[in-house]
Amino acid sequence: xxxxxxxxxxxxxxxxxxxxxxxxxxxxxxxxxxxxxxxxxxxxxxxxxxxxxxxxxxxxxxxxxxxxxxxxxxxxxxxxxxxxxxxxxxxxxxxxxxxxxxxxxxxxxxxxxxxxxxxxxxxxxxxxxxxxxxxxxxxxxxxxxxxxxxxxxxxxxxxxxxxxxxxxxxxxxxxxxxxxxxxxxxxxxxxxxxxxxxxxxxxxxxxxxxxxxxxxxxxxxxxxxxxxxxxxxxxxxxxxxxxxxxxxxxxxxxxxxxxxxxxxxxxxxxxxxxxxxxxxxxxxxxxxxxxxxxxxxxxxxxxxxxxxxxxxxxxxxxxxxxxxxxxxxxxxxxxxxxxxxxxxxxxxxxxxxxxxxxxxxxxxxxxxxxxxxxxxxxxxxxxxxxxxxxxxxxxxxxxxxxxxxxxxxxxxxxxxxxxxxxxxxxxxxxxxxxxxxxxxxxxxxxxxxxxxxxxxxxxxxxxxxxxxxxxxxxxxxxxxxxxxxxxxxxxxxxxxxxxxxxxxxxxxxxxxxxxxxxxxxxxxxxxxxxxxxxxxxxxxxxxxxxxxxxxxxxxxxxxxxxxxxxxxxxxxxxxxxxxxxxxxxxxxxxxxxxxxxxxxxxxxxxxxxxxxxxxxxxxxxxxxxxxxxxxxxxxxxxxxxxxxxxxxxxxxxxxxxxxxxxxxxxxxxxxxxxxxxxxxxxxxxxxxxxxxxxxxxxxxxxxxxxxxxxxxxxxxxxxxxxxxxxxxxxxxxxxxxxxxxxxxxxxxxxxxxxxxxxxxxxxxxxxxxxxxxxxxxxxxxxxxxxxxxxxxxxxxxxxxxxxxxxxxxxxxxxxxxxxxxxxxxxxxxxxxxxxxxxx
Length: 839
Hints:
With about 850 residues, the chain is α/β, with parallel strands linked by helices. Helices cover about 50% and strands about 15% of the residues.
């Protein structure tokens, strides 16, 4: 531990910070001074204000009052990008990595601009960085394909690479194993030796004593203690955190079982991907712990018992063999499994405490298939009894709860239905000291009631205090079984590390995921769509050779330009997670505006074109402000504006009119080598959009904003501003499509373009863009536009009614929606299988 020098410079000062949320004062005049070259632990229960405090320092949370002193400057509030450029790097408890980005793109957003390599050199630079940190993660992998552990390691790597003067670590070891924790501590020690200030937030008191020099303790939004860590015992620190003494953290253990006692749970020769011939037993009243270096099979075994992945062996509950062929059959046998990833895997974040608690017990909650609110409330209160869930009422969304209260709701769910076996993965991950005591007492009470409790934890101290027996895994097999006095931290860690040949398994063996890195990598969808258009054209030409005549093809390509532009307009909004229902109306308004200038020659037409584009941008601006400033859902905002814009267009042109002169139509219909100029413009716009979205910083921000707005904000993306510019771009592109419409028809018609809104959505869906935001290819949208117009043009030559156009479009949408889902399911299954085998 570092000795406190006689004079230590402040690296970060938070003065009189106050932050209030509706009904809750998260911080109340908090002052914390973090010295350079020292590790400062910020401690407190969940909800004490720790994460809010560091979020304010990092710029992701706006304070109500107070000052932030960083890099010699004082701020009333600071933006994430400003904090990063000023030398502050933060690793959040939940990794701030937008799922739709690649690892390399996420890293580029997280780094200060002065530390970013060029786009061309980024992949090689990141490969070398990961190698120097003993990480084997493919820079081209999608963030969504990473495990929670890998995502934490990527964010830690980004923080280290930024060469910070202040490093904030918010619960950094919750998803890490012992080896990774040691790996992190080595790097923290090296940074401190170089004069870096480290803010360390954790619930693990032994880590505080091991790594920290100073501490500040928060309770109910106020600082209730501060000083040097060396001046406090572990018990004193815990007392400061929870405001009361802990006579005992762990409940008393069960007495040794009788020799002839029938096990409550017996696992015999269980095998599966990543583990082989695993056997152990849990007797009534016992809690058994599963331990080992992360990735040695213990996690896969727990899930195998729960009905996921086991390929051989037997499981007995109460002396009777039960089926674990599936999650459903295991649950029917009385086996309840509570995953460690609460929100991601176990719970419905936007649903209430009540709905989450009774979710697996619907037959009990609603025996006749109808909601019985009184019964649900009774069951929920029964489930959470004694768990002290901190919430004003049972209708609070579970995502709004602290980590400890979320875990208690999950435990309450496990209690309902009278399970015979309770499998708990990482029961206190992200849970404060006070809540841990309640959770330990709950698990012991379940065991005392005859339930076989099996706990998987990476915390050896927790396993020592809670478990009657600990089964240690190595390379997918039981390496040691510790009982009685053998169950202590040193023995558990020793059996896990010294017996394993897979040292550093979690750091050195994170799976490599290859993906193409060529200029047009990932554009297979565009090639497929163009291939379908060509194939359909060939079929149509067999029916009628006139289909491939120069005039027919020229008209097809010119019409396709409109579909390409409206598709691109929709895409830029969809990528941000929204939708624009005003596109057809903007196209009509644009064509109407320019129709007043079309009879006056090309010069005045240019003036009209500028006015039309400005009108489109103005509509986009209004849409963006309605969404970002007033908080209206994009569907409502753009529907309202669509009606208003259409009304304006109809006022301007109650009837079609404003015929263009012949010279103007000839100019606008120019073709080069048989390719209409309007198509060349549309394709050029698509190429430019593709480059911006895939190859620039603003494009990364666009995808991040649509992928996960909260994480994007933490990565430094100004989400509201990004969405506003996307809306403006969409309006401008729709107006450009209106100019093309006028160039083809030669008149302004307020009612001629309404179907283009639906077509724009169709093009985006067929192009494979995620309707939830975060991804999409402009080149694929361009190909989709060409395909849709080919379908429309081919129908008349094939002798098929025009109504079939909508059936065929619907079929394309259905196909485009189902195929990616099937591919994703197959990939996820393969990834899980690979992970289990490597485990």
